[in-house]
Design brief:
The complex is a heterodimer.
Chain A (H helix, E strand, L loop, with lengths): L1 H19 L3 H5 L3 E6 L3 E6 H7 L2 E5 L8 E7 H8 L5 E6 L4 E5 H4 L5 E6 L2 E2 L9 E3 L11 H6 L4 E6 L1
Parallel strand pairs in A: 1-10
Antiparallel strand pairs in A: 1-2, 3-4, 4-7, 5-6, 5-10, 7-8, 7-9
Chain B lengths: L1 H49 L1 H24 L7 H20 L4 H4 L2 H24 L7 H100 L1 E7 L6 E3 L2 H5 L10 H7 L2 H16 L4 E9 L5 E10 L9 E8 L1 H54 L6 H25 L8 E4 H16 L3 E7 L5 E4 L1 H18 L4 E12 L1 H6 L6 E10 L6 H6 L17 H11 L3 E7 L3 E9 L26 E5 L3 H13 L3 E5 L2 H11 L5 E5 L8 H11 L4 E6 L3 H5 L9 E4 L4 H13 L2
Parallel strand pairs in B: 7-9, 13-14, 13-15, 15-16, 16-17
Antiparallel strand pairs in B: 1-2, 1-5, 3-4, 4-5, 6-8, 9-10, 10-12, 11-12
Helix pairs in contact in B: 1-6, 2-3, 2-6, 3-5, 5-6, 10-11, 10-17, 11-16, 12-13, 13-16, 18-19
Classes of the chains: A alpha+beta, B alpha/beta.
């Protein structure tokens, strides 16, 4: 009984930590993406599973890095199609608790890329990994606007569809 | 004038519009450039507003504070902060620093290169130091020394980061102010451009309005001119139509024929059907006139004559013959090559008709004047001849008494008397023609009179000639000398008979007729009014127009020599004229002749009409014993007549002049019973004057006037008293005896 209470307490604390956005345990393990929302419930998607759901490549520079990079990832539309998730807004949260809200019309497109590799390698937190929303910034001035820059959240740990 | 001004205004307008268009283009370029600039400016402004560069800086500062906070919590023994948490915070700071580095060329950081470099390097250095310290830590929890060292490493970032934040804020404000200034000045320029555009538009509108006004004025003027022209044209058209004048232009070769006005109407072709060429016109000209018309027109066209004016006849499509006057002038073109002329045509048919009528009238007047002159002449001759006849007849009568004893004498004397009487008849005819025969007119119904005459004529003309009487119903009273009229009718019947040697028909008709003003206008000697027309027509050989024209002249005859005196129609003419009538002759060779006599119809019947008694004069010559004062300037006549009167038993006193007669009257006093005087006498006192003077001395003195010019009696009616008796020369002794007896015994 005491062990059950301890387990519950641990899970609670762990949940709290998760909510705080600093899951210490997960840092060293294979990166996962917590996803919640209508049509998908509450689940965690690992990097390998995410790669299986869909993959595409994007060659572009970004306002936050120097030089052209080759990004690999899953597009918003691929992600939505594969997971069956629905909603109006997507609340994306970073490892340090930073949050942005992306409209569905921007998220569920082929131009939004949930990148998981840069130049053929998984991205560490220091490299704005493990997951980074990238747009084809070189494709047109409309992507070089502040709106799109603000959607380009990195070190993502969670998507909450509402 | 107006169009020239319009033109100059047009060029001024073009210049104005061009200048304004250039101003417009320039002014429009300003906002265009501004628009391009504004896009860049907007971009910069938005960047400043969003604070993108500073946002990166702030995120880096935030993550730096997150690291410091995590280390402070760890130092305070917070169990939630372990190695992993600190490591994550440092990793995030690292990623932020990475982004901060990439923004080093941004507008703000470009101005703060040193500080920016110092900051990113200090962060790099702190993270590198932290990585070493963390590498030494073994457990999940950090040692207090480790935490302290880490704090020390990161505390060194604070200063340069704070400085950068502060300077970036200042630079951002400066940049914003600069951009705002630029925007303000751009707004100023834009406003200036808009104002200039407004002014330019105002200018353009003014120019257009000014021009519009001038255009309106010019248009109004033009309209007035056009209207005036149209009115003038209308008036010309009207004048041309009213005056029947049309103008034309003809070229050699009929290159450019033009005509205006009622040209087609004047030449009598349907509107729009006349081709207009000179040759077309010549086709319409009457063949008799064509040659001279063609010559006149062609001479002028070729310049052989400078101008021409001809009269010609054209035969229109309507079949009417019109008289035209064509006046033209050569129009030599400047190059001398084009042969051209212009002019007018004018219809003068009316004028021509008028001229023809005037000619007829003039010839009629001449004719009547000629007749008058011949009448004067024959009258004068007849007068003198009558005097001589009077002497002859008087002396023959005296001789008859003297030679009573010789048995052969009466036969010779009677033959001489017969010849003298026949001569007297001739002179009577002459006097009749000269309208100077004494007439005894009375009112008679011509219809009745002619009916009676026809019966007489029918008997005398013979069986070959059928005499017809045509009498229209109606009263035909006329004041006329029936004996003379009868002589006229017989004369005309004889002429008709002579004109119909093979026999034929003689028609005498009587009708009333009204001669109107029109007829009177064409026959100057005729007064308009009601007339009775007596027409004598035959179906004989007729006369040529020339012969008919001379038929009334005395001594003119178409008969063989010895067959006619040529006085028949002359007598008719003179008698009718003397009776205030009119006579005309119509004849056609081979078809017959008609003589028409018009006598004035008497509208009031006089009571005396049917009751003029035929005076039964005594067959014997009446005789008397009274004293007669006889005045006659011609001595032989005076002697003869005095002898005749003496033989009739009268006592005769003779005087050659008026004053002599008055002297005798004064001397003889009551002894004189009758003043017998010639009317026409030389020496200032004529018969009338003498009669007046005698009446002053002897109011009851009987007067008998005599004259060879009885026509003058009526002319001087005022001189003649009603109780004066008349005796026309020549007279027989019988006439003399009756006249003297009547003057002495009748009132």
């Amino acid at each position: 009984m005491k062990s059950i209470i301890g387990l519950v307490a641990w899970l609670t604390v762990a949940g709290l930590f998760e909510v705080a956005g600093a899951p210490a345990v997960l840092a060293s393990e294979a990166p996962t993406l917590a996803v919640s929302g209508p049509g998908i419930g509450e689940r965690r998607i690992g990097l390998d599973e995410l790669k299986r759901l869909g993959g595409t490549e994007l060659r572009t520079s970004t306002p936050f890095t120097e030089g052209v990079k080759v990004f690999a990832g899953i597009t918003g539309s691929q992600f939505v199609k594969a997971t069956g998730v629905t909603g109006r807004d997507v609340h994306a949260e970073a490892v340090n608790g930073y949050k942005v809200v992306i409209p569905w019309a921007v998220f569920a497109t082929d131009t939004l890329l949930i990148a998981y590799e840069r130049d053929g390698k998984p991205m560490a937190v220091r490299d704005k990994g493990p997951f980074w929303i990238v747009f084809p910034f070189d494709a047109g001035p409309e992507f070089r606007t502040d709106t799109y820059k603000s959607y380009a959240i990195w070190s993502i740990t969670r998507f909450e569809f509402q | 004038m107006a169009d020239r001004r319009l033109f100059s205004q047009g060029s001024a307008l073009r210049v104005g519009v061009t200048v304004l268009a250039l101003v417009y283009a320039t002014l429009l370029a300003v906002p265009l450039v501004m628009l391009i600039n504004a896009r860049t400016l907007q971009h910069s402004m938005v960047n400043i507003a969003a604070g993108e560069d500073r946002w990166m800086l702030y995120r880096a500062e935030f993550e730096y504070q997150a690291v410091i906070t995590a280390l402070e919590r760890a130092q305070a023994g917070d169990p939630g902060i372990g190695r992993v948490q600190v490591q994550t915070a440092i990793d995030v700071l690292f990623s932020r620093n990475d982004s901060l580095k990439s923004a080093r060329s941004s507008p703000i950081f470009a101005a703060l290169t040193d500080r920016h470099q110092a900051t990113v390097e200090s962060i790099d250095a702190a993270i590198a130091a932290a990585d070493q310290i963390l590498g030494r830590e073994a457990g999940p929890r950090l040692s207090p020394d480790g935490v302290r060292e880490l704090s020390g490493a990161f505390m060194r970032i604070g200063q340069p980061l704070a400085t950068l934040v502060r300077d970036a804020r200042t630079a951002s404000v400066k940049l914003r102010d600069k951009l705002l200034d630029k925007a303000t000045s751009m707004t100023g320029w834009l406003l200036a451009a808009v104002a200039a555009l407004g002014l330019a538009s105002l200018g353009l509108v003014s120019v257009l309005a000014w021009n519009n006004r001038r255009l309106l004025v010019a248009t109004t003027e033009l309209q007035t001119t056009v209207k005036a022209l149209r009115d003038s044209d209308e008036r010309l058209r009207f004048a041309q139509g009213a005056g029947r004048i049309a103008s034309w232009i003809w070229d050699a070769g009929d290159a450019l024929p033009r005509y205006s006005g009622p040209f087609e109407e004047i030449i009598g072709v349907a509107p729009g059907t006349f081709p207009g060429a000179l040759s077309d016109f010549l086709q319409l000209v009457h063949p008799d006139d064509r040659e001279h018309t063609r010559r006149a027109l062609n001479d002028c066209l070729k310049g052989a004559s400078a101008e021409f004016a001809i009269q010609t006849r054209v035969l229109g499509d309507d079949g009417k013959l019109r008289w035209l006057e064509i006046i033209g002038r050569n129009l030599q073109a400047a190059n001398g090559r084009t042969q051209r002329m212009a002019g007018v045509i004018h219809e003068i048919s009316e004028r021509k008709r008028g001229e023809a009528e005037r000619l007829t009238l003039a010839s009629q007047l001449r004719e009547s004047q000629k007749m008058e002159a011949i009448g004067e002449l024959t009258g004068g001759i007849a007068h003198d001849f009558n005097n001589q006849l009077g002497v002859i007849m008087g002396n023959l009568a005296l001789l008859k008494e003297c030679a009573a004893n010789d048995p052969r004498a009466p036969e010779y004397i009677e033959a001489a008397l017969y010849a003298a009487k026949h001569s007297a008849e001739l002179t009577r005819s002459l006097l009749a023609f000269a309208r100077r025969q004494p007439l005894r007119p009375k009112i008679v119904d011509i219809g009745d009179f002619i009916t009676e005459s026809v019966r007489l004529i029918d008997r005398t003309l013979g069986e070959d000639i059928e005499v017809k009487l045509s009498r229209l119903p109606g009263e035909t009273p006329v004041l006329v000398d029936t004996a003379q009229l009868s002589a006229c009718i017989i004369n005309l019947a004889n002429n008709a008979r002579d004109a119909m040697p093979e026999g034929g028909a003689l028609t005498i008709s009587v009708r009333t007729v009204e001669l109107g003003q029109d007829y009177a206008a064409l026959h100057p000697e005729v007064d308009a009014g009601d007339y009775v027309a007596i027409e004598v027509s035959d179906t004989g050989i007729g006369m040529t127009p020339e012969a008919a024209g001379k038929a009334f002249e005395p001594f003119f005859t178409t008969k063989e020599i010895g067959k006619g005196t040529g006085l028949g129609l002359s007598m008719v003419h003179g008698f009718v004229k003397q009776s205030s009538g009119h006579v005309e002759i119509v004849s056609e060779l081979g078809r017959g002749t008609t003589v028409r006599i018009y006598l004035p119809r008497v509208t009031e019947r006089r009571a005396a009409m049917a009751s003029v008694p035929l005076t039964s004069e005594p067959v014997r010559m009446p005789r008397g014993k009274e004293t007669v004062l006889m005045v006659e300037d011609n001595e032989s006549v005076r002697k003869t007549v005095a002898a005749q009167l003496t033989s009739l038993g009268y006592h005769v006193l003779e005087a050659a002049k008026g004053w002599e007669a008055l002297a005798i009257l004064d001397r003889s006093g009551q002894g004189i019973d009758l003043l017998f005087t010639d009317i026409v006498m030389p020496g200032g006192m004529d018969g009338y004057a003498l009669a007046r003077a005698a009446a002053e001395r002897r109011p009851n003195l009987k007067v008998l006037l005599t004259s060879g010019f009885p026509g003058r009696w009526s002319e001087r009616a005022g001189d003649r008293r009603s109780d004066h008796h008349l005796l026309s020369k020549p007279y027989s002794q019988d006439d003399l005896a009756k006249a003297v007896w009547a003057a002495l015994h009748r009132a």
